[in-house]
Amino acid sequence: MKTKILRRLLSISLVSVLAFNLTACGHDNDGSTDNTETAPADEAVTPSTDAGNNSDPEPEQPSPTPEVIEEQKGLTKADCEERIEALRKTEAVIPTDEEVLTEMASCAVFSRILDRDGMIFSEMDNADRASLRSEIIDSVIWGETALYEKIMTTVNDEYAIPVEEAEKLFRDFYGEEGFVPYEYERVENGYIYPLFADGEPWHRVEHMQYFEDDDHILFTGPSFYESNGGDQKFIAYADILFAKNTDSRYGVTLLYGRYRDEKINIVSVETSSELPPSGDKTYSGNNLTDDDPATIWAEGVKGTGVGETIVIHLDKPSSVYGVVICNGYTASYEQYRDNGIVTETSADFGNGNVVKNEVSGYWCEGYTSEDLADINNTKLELEKPVVTDTIVITITGASAGEKYDDTCISGITVY
Ligand SMILES: [Ca+2]
């Protein structure tokens, strides 16, 4: 965890190179799917610099009392997980302050500090705190939140937040006491400055559902790793637990977050054709669900395989939002370049619920299998989840590679 900030900073130059190279490398289409509704933190949004115009007459909430924070710290991970399981069994609600709570939950997920072990936010180490603080400050600057008007200022034409305001913000947000800057955080003369360097792919949660009891609010939903190309790979379901806290300006404090070890299980895959094995390599539909980007399904008909189908069977009827297709022969740059890719596909979830999308394909000399698997994901997503145990994917467009016209897919995830 301690290396994350460093990794984020080091990633700047790499990301710039990748972004530049995309224009010079193979890409079959512009990947213009509908995945662009959230602007990345470094997008050129220009907030007002009139920080002195504090037109909101609402008085500042007092700082939380130490007693309230102490009480929240008393909960263990096991307590939190028990609470989450109980809340998930209740009816979903729409909280009154949905917008600000969604922003808080998004900060926790964007900062990439969640994992399957779970995390009590107030007990994070300073490197993870710095990751979360960076997202909070980004959110204040670029999110056009009400907080912007209250606490942002400029020092020598640079955006900055007075340290004492920042301390209150972090305490209200996730219960941090005793702010100590991390080595890469820039704090000078009583102001903290945002780090604009983060160009690494980010994490996000979609289709958040909310549950609450007297003391807590739970946000939960499928979480995606989103590459700089805009493609999205399903990671896991994220659970973010808030403690209700009337002393926080948000009415809540971030308490606990985790990725849930649960997925929709594919029990079998039938395909309309497959390329015969070659040496020790097979091209069956089983390669779509093995979590290995080096193994692929390839269609086995003459031409590029438009009209070929993949039928996915789940272990039980499940509530499904969509599928993610990892396109092409993602074992290596050469394999990707030489073989065919999907350019358009449909997914039929039953009962007339069909989604059709363009499918992007990117490859570039020097890309590893992991790079290719990260940047070649396309979602086929329903507006509302449906309960189904069968999904039929049909190739409706494909293009041949430099050497072969066998169209390849390396993985499929259902979420
Ligand atoms: Ca595979």
Give keywords.
binds calcium ion, Jelly Rolls, disordered N terminus, 415 residues, 7-stranded antiparallel β-sheet, alpha+beta, globular, 6-stranded antiparallel β-sheet, 2 domains, 9 helices
What does this protein look like?
The protein has 415 residues and is α+β, with helices and mostly antiparallel strands. It folds into two domains: 4-260, no CATH class; 266-414, Galactose-binding domain-like (Jelly Rolls, Sandwich), CATH 2.60.120. Helix content is 25%, strand content 32%. The strands form four sheets. Strands 12, 13, 14, 15, 16, 18 and 19 form a seven-stranded antiparallel beta sheet that branches. Strands 2, 7, 8, 9, 10 and 11 form a six-stranded antiparallel beta sheet that branches. Strands 3-4-6-5 form a four-stranded antiparallel beta sheet. The two termini are 27 Å apart. It binds calcium ion. Calcium ion is lined by residues 287-288, 290, 292-293, 295-296, 410-411.
Helix content: 10-25%
| Subunit arrangement of the protein | single chain
How many structurally independent domains?
2
- The proportion of residues in beta strands is 25-35%
- Uncertain runs with pLDDT below 50, 5 residues or more? 1-24, 30-59
Task: Report the mean per-residue pLDDT as an integer.
Answer: 85
Largest sheet: 7 strands, antiparallel
Report the C-alpha radius of gyration, rounded: 23 Å
Question: What's the order of the H and E elements?
Answer: HEHHHEHHEEHEEEEEEEEEEHEEEHEE
Characterize the overall form. globular
Which cofactor or ligand species appear? calcium ion
The number of distinct helices, counting runs of at least 4 residues, comes to: 9
The SS-based structural class is alpha+beta
End-to-end separation: 27 Å
Q: Quick one: how many beta strands?
A: 19
